[in-house]
Amino acid sequence: MIRIAGLGLVAVLLAACSGQTETGGTAQAVGAAGPTGTATVPGVPAATVAFEGGDQLSPKDPIVVRASGGTLQAVTVTNPQTGNAVKGALSPDKTTWTSNDRLRYGATYQAVATAVNPAGAASEQRGEVRTIKPSGVATASLFQPSSGDFGVGLVLGLKFDHDITDKATVEKSFKVTSSPAQDGGWYWVGKREVHYRPKEYWKAGSTVKLETTTFGMPIGGGVYGGQDVSATYKVHDSWIAKADGKTHQMKAFHNGQLVKTAPISMGKTVDTPPRGPTPTFNGTHTVLSKVDHTIMDSCSYGVCEGDPGYYKAPENWDVRISNDGEYLHENLKTVGVQGSDNVSNGCLNMNTENAKWFFDNFNAGDVVEVTNSGGPQLSINNGHGDWAISWSAWQAGSALRG
Hints:
Elements: E1 13-14, E2 48-52, E3 64-68, E4 71-79, E5 84-85, E6 88-90, E7 96-99, E8 108-116, E9 122-130, E10 136-138, E11 140-142, E12 147-150, E13 156-160, H1 167-172, E14 174-179, E15 184-188, E16 193-198, E17 207-212, E18 223-225, E19 230-235, E20 239-244, E21 249-254, E22 257-263, E23 283-286, E24 289-297, E25 312-320, E26 327-330, E27 348-350, H2 352-361, E28 367-371, H3 391-396
Parallel strand pairs: 1-9, 10-18, 12-19, 20-28, 26-27
Antiparallel strand pairs: 2-3, 3-7, 4-5, 4-8, 6-7, 8-9, 11-13, 13-16, 14-17, 15-16, 17-19, 20-21, 21-22, 23-28, 24-25, 25-26
């Protein structure tokens, strides 16, 4: 409350959550100061304040404090649950204060505003604004890191921690831009995961940006969108390897030019006891990761020590191309049949020189196209099998195409 130079108290006007206020009559105001220091101007109504938003404000929307019959002198908005003050700014005419901070779900914000009428009388007014409390918050994580350098086979993606029932609304909140511009689209892998790729491989040198604006949106079943994510990627030179299971050769192309040919041995397609066929997956793979040395253990896919066909072997120059354990790597035991026969457990075997060359030149997002392997098609959830899906089928996987 503010005392007016010995003439009493200016009315304190309390605002309800609906934003309505009560004027409490006519406020006395300080006029021009004379020799005695005080003058009054009767009949001037007190300025009033409305706190907009009420009980169902989306945390995506701002808290707005609006003065009528005067201007705002000061506004403080606080989340008492956290003790954090909410940042905001006054309009040029000082009649409106608008928050510019990110709000929280299920929070009650306490607002205190001081408004001044044309005669200079100030009144402090209080109110509350509550944000919606959803039944669940679906937060997305990026399929790739939030930045980085990738090959032309780069696949973007988001994984949510809740099922998405209104996929169309969510998909509309995504934005992908590329420079230069390229035609692309989204494909829903399941209830929680969605991928993006262009119709053709990305153009070398492209910059690709992903942004979401799902926060604060109702996305079905009482669930709202969680914090937004963004990412920026740079596409490096085009590196594409073409591995043919019939010729047992792998050719590497740099920006469209053939720069390397290497004999290989793919996964075996015939029953060779003690293990059955283990053909390499057909289709377009991309490099997921690489390591110069690792121990490959068949127990990782269920063939453990004591089982027929168990192995545990050190391997060098390992370039991973699927989640199922397919690698390009050195294998000295198969050098004698590299270029003539497929005998591996699914990997693409090479000699030391060729394996080291591919390890040095191929990086995340670079492409390995496998044909004539005798194996099934690489699936979308087995690494980045996205490129194995035809463009028409990919477009049909969008929630906006149904």
